[in-house]
Amino acid sequence: MLKLVANRLLLITFILLGPLSLIKAEDVPKSYLELPPAIMKHVPTVIRIQTANPDDFVEPILMIDGVKREILSDEEGLYHEYTFTEAAEVQLIQQSRIESKRITPIPLWLSILPPLIAIVMALITKEVFSSLFIGLLIGTSVIYKYSGIGFFVAIFKGAFAIIDTYLMHALLSHEHLSIIIFSMLIGGMVTLISLNGGMKGIVNILSKYANNRRSGQFITYIMGMLIFFDDYANTLVVGNTMRPVTDKLKISREKLAYIVDSTSAPIAAIAFITTWIGAELSYIQQGIAEVGLSSSAYSVFLQSLKYSFYPILTLIFVPMLIWQRRDFGPMLKAEKQAKMASHESTEKKGRSPQIMKELEVAEDVQPRWFNAVIPVFIVVAGTIAGLIYTGWNPAIWGNDHLSFTSKLSTTIGDADVFNALIWSSLAGVFAALLLTTSQRILNLKESIEGLINGFKTMFHAILILSLAWSLALLTEHLHTAEFITGLLTSINISPEFIPALTFVFSAAIAFSTGSSWGTMAIIYPLILPAIWKIGLEAGLDTEAILPLFYNAVSSVLAGSVLGDHCSPISDTTILSSLACSCHHIHHVRTQMPYALVVGSIALIMGTLPSAFGFPVIASYALAIGILFVFIRLKGKLI
């Protein structure tokens, strides 16, 4: 019987697949065209020619609108770079086979629509999932519409492309998967140290020092400053640790999220030993190489720090608010509501009743502070150890001409950030699990269930992050940054205004794309050579250009952090909302006025006058004074 079934299956397979064997080898395409997902008007497009049969290769011919084009080669293979200004016919000819594609380039201004609509919808509707999805749908529909298909078919195919193309690419990224795993492990650890009484033990101790709203906010700020080496670790550790304390003191989740968000990226961006330093130095090095400077990237970074007005002023503005006990704008309303709310209602804000029930500590569990401190310490110390381990280079540490700070900074700059975070968070989970089971607070089954419930609490944020990453990839395909850059750089301006302009459009790109690192990667290679060239054309000597060059270096960094702070599609903004269990759009709406106030004063009193030679120390003094007076006049006592 089985033999009969097998024979019939073989016969059916032969009938279905047999005709394929009749296809001649030469009918299989030897080369084919590979075009980018979106071809934008006036943006150079790389047309790649992929070879299917490298063993039987025949040189192809590339024609664009009937004109033969030169085919070049690089490490990835054959290619031709062409800038489409209107619809064109692209043909690949190989022997008797012709592959033809009709290209209709997309107007570059359409690239701003997906992020702009997503951001505006999120701020108006206060609902981020549908806003991100609509932004993605508009972008994918535009791409398919210009590929030559009908309007409704383009929308239909665009909806599926969100899942099978952009979401899949976002989730298949090593960095993105690392962030997801790290976030889930931190969520599981926090849930476990809540169930074993560790978090309650910390609350009991901190309550002795954080006995009022002001001291509670100061302790949160100090913790944020201490965990300076990575913005993700800072956000998740400080937010999750301090949330029970600030809830007890009736500090709003929005204020907690603001303090956490404003001490994570700003301190990580300017500290000497952080996970940001490697990316910053690599981008700066590209600019140095292009203009021919003899200084090292690290030296330029150090020289530029004094011009980092926005990050430094943000780190000063936060304690100013706390000390004066004043707030303004949407934050004032949130703080008043939190102060009037009962402890129970504040505690449950931002979490479902089911999750709160799963985080409740049993009455017979004795609060012990070390059940939380040990796992958190392992995460912090483990991350630093992991950074040193993955970035260790004997040649660097054997160089007697380098200072210890330079060696450590270079090591951490070369480290594998994401592996270090995953290792440390996993070690923290194991420590929490061991402490919980060894003291018989929970058995192994209950502990694992607690971990799984902790993983569940992260799903909401992971979904938002995934959609935000998808939108960032879409803006990359649509060349949104090039549109904004071209729009702003078209202005013919004096070299002294370049740092201020750099700050503004770095913030605009970071706001639109939700990525400060992505913004730095785009702007640094454009601005650093540009400001040097503009300075030379204006008749300035090297000594006069260098301060402008340093100012521009810091302006890219500062503008990227500002745009990241204001953007509802930024991953660090999303993680801050997550760690503090704050409604994401509420966090964006309450933080944005504070960020814009500091950003405006940093621009007007710092970046702009310092470029014209005004003393930097005087700029800081004036900016801090104005911020102090602004809080005094605009803010209301809480």
List key phrases describing it.
638 residues; alpha+beta; four-stranded antiparallel β-sheet; 68% helix; transmembrane helix; membrane; Na/H_Antiport_NhaC-like_C; transmembrane; cell membrane
Radius of gyration over all CA atoms, rounded: 28 Å
- What's the story with the biggest beta sheet? 4 strands, antiparallel
The CATH homologous superfamily of one domain: Macroglobulin (MG2) domain
Shape designation: globular
Give the topology:
Layout: H1 2-17, E1 31-34, E2 44-51, E3 61-64, E4 67-69, E5 72-74, E6 77-83, E7 88-94, E8 97-103, H2 113-125, H3 128-145, H4 151-171, H5 174-195, H6 198-209, H7 213-226, H8 231-248, H9 253-262, H10 265-270, H11 277-291, H12 297-304, H13 309-324, E9 326-327, H14 330-340, H15 343-348, H16 353-359, H17 370-391, H18 394-397, H19 404-413, H20 417-438, H21 444-457, H22 459-477, H23 480-489, H24 498-513, H25 516-537, H26 542-566, H27 571-579, H28 584-611, H29 616-634, E10 636-637
Antiparallel strand pairs: 1-2, 2-6, 3-4, 3-7, 5-6, 7-8, 9-10
Helix pairs in contact: 2-3, 3-4, 3-22, 4-22, 5-8, 5-20, 5-21, 5-22, 6-8, 6-17, 7-8, 7-13, 8-9, 8-27, 9-27, 9-28, 11-12, 11-19, 11-25, 12-26, 13-28, 13-29, 17-19, 17-20, 20-21, 22-27, 23-24, 24-25, 24-26, 24-28, 25-26, 26-28, 28-29
What does this molecule look like?
With 638 residues, the protein is α+β, with helices and mostly antiparallel strands. Among the domains are: 78 residues, Immunoglobulin-like (Sandwich); 63 residues, no CATH class. It has 29 helices and ten strands. The strands form three sheets. It has a four-stranded antiparallel sheet, with no helix packed on it. Helix 5 packs across helix 21, helix 8 runs antiparallel to helix 9 and helix 9 crosses helix 27. It is globular, with a radius of gyration of 28 Å. 46% of the residues are buried. About 5% of the residues have low confidence. One of its GO terms (cellular component) is plasma membrane. It is a multi-pass membrane protein. Pfam families: Na_H_antiporter. It is found in: Cell membrane.
